[in-house]
Amino acid sequence: QVQLVESGGGLVQAGESLRLSCAASGRTFSWYAMGWFRQAPGKEREFIAAIMGSGGSTTYADSVKGRFTISRDNAKNTMYLQMNSLTPEDSAVYYCAARRTPIATMTRLSYDYWGQGTQVTVSS
């Protein structure tokens, strides 16, 4: 069993940056691929970024490519999402997720564990 806790959300203005963290407890962190998703009111939860267990490969949604960076520190059991050049369209609850395999995927249903989410609000 893996427990995930997100932090770092908040209210920022357009153009500013935030860094989200996802702390994991449980078994060996590097065994799990990790992902970030977000859900805005009235919309489905959408894929943002994913990283393989070793951290050697990453993938991004087109909407955030070039602005967001996913990373992980397996020694600290923590994953990060650096978000730059934020826009109001990035406002959502952001969730981290873990998959019981080191191979990353964009598919929401492939993830086995989820955090409770952290709110990000970007004002114009």
Description:
With 124 residues, this protein is mostly beta strands. It is 0% helix and 49% strand. It contains no helices and eleven strands. The protein has strands spanning 3-7, 10-13, 18-25, 33-39, 46-51, 58-60, 68-73, 78-83, 92-99, 113-114, 118-123. The strands form two sheets. Strands 2, 4, 5, 6, 9, 10 and 11 form a seven-stranded mixed β-sheet that branches. Strands 1-3-8-7 form a four-stranded antiparallel β-sheet, with no helix packed on it. Strand 7 (68-73) and strand 8 (78-83) form a beta hairpin. The N and C termini lie far apart (40 Å). The mean pLDDT is 96.
Task: Please render the helix and strand layout as text.
Blueprint: E1 3-7, E2 10-13, E3 18-25, E4 33-39, E5 46-51, E6 58-60, E7 68-73, E8 78-83, E9 92-99, E10 113-114, E11 118-123
